[in-house]
Amino acid sequence: MPLKPLKCPWCGSSDYEARTNCRNCGGPLPEREPEDAGRSGEMPLKPPPPPREISKNYARKLMMGSGWGLSAAIFAFIGAIFFFLGLLLSALVVTAFVGIPFTGMGAIFGVFGFIVLKAQYDKASRTVEVLKHGRDTEGLVTEVEQNLMVRINGRNPFIISYGYTVDGRHFKGSVQTLHNPFPVYRQGCGAWVLYDPGSPETSTLYPHP
User: Fold this and answer.
1) pLDDT value for 167
2) For 37-168, where are the E strands, in sequence order?
C-alpha cells in the first residue's frame, strides 16, 4: 500500500525519506501511514512517552506564526528605526526639533513591541514544554475554522478548537496553525491532547499541526 508524503509537524518541511527525526529541525517524525489513513475517523498515532525531542527553534516558529507575534516584531523593528534615527537627528542642532519626537515615538513603539513579543514567546515556550513533558489524553476536535480576517505571510491561519477531560474535569483548548490541518484534524474527529499535569488547562495537540 503506498505511503502518504510525510510533513514534519514541527517545522512544516517535507521529508520523503524513512527516518525518525526531521532532517531540517530535528523534531521527531510520526510513523509513516498509508495514503488512505486519517480519512475514516481514526485517531492519530499515540504520542511517545516524555521527554519528547522538540526543536529548540520551535518556540520562535510558533511565536512568529501568530498574528500578535508578527505584529509585535514589526512594531519593535519600526520602533528601533525611529529611535536610532531620532537620536541621529537630535545630535544635530538644526534637526533636533524633529529628532526628539522621533526618539520618543521610537521608544514607545519599541517598548510596546518588545513587551508583546516577550509575552508571545513565553506563551510559545509553555507550549513547547507541554509538547516535551506533557501527559497525554484523548480529546475531541470541536471546530476547525479559517480566520479570513488575519493574513500571516500571505496565508490565513486555521484555528482548531478541541475539548478533553482530566480527572473528571472538562477543559477546552485551541491551536492556531498556518498549515492546512485536514484531514488529520477536522470537526468531530478524535485527537491526542498533551496537558500540564500541574495545570491541566494548559494544553496543546499532538502532533502540533
Assistant:
1) 94
2) 135-146, 158-166
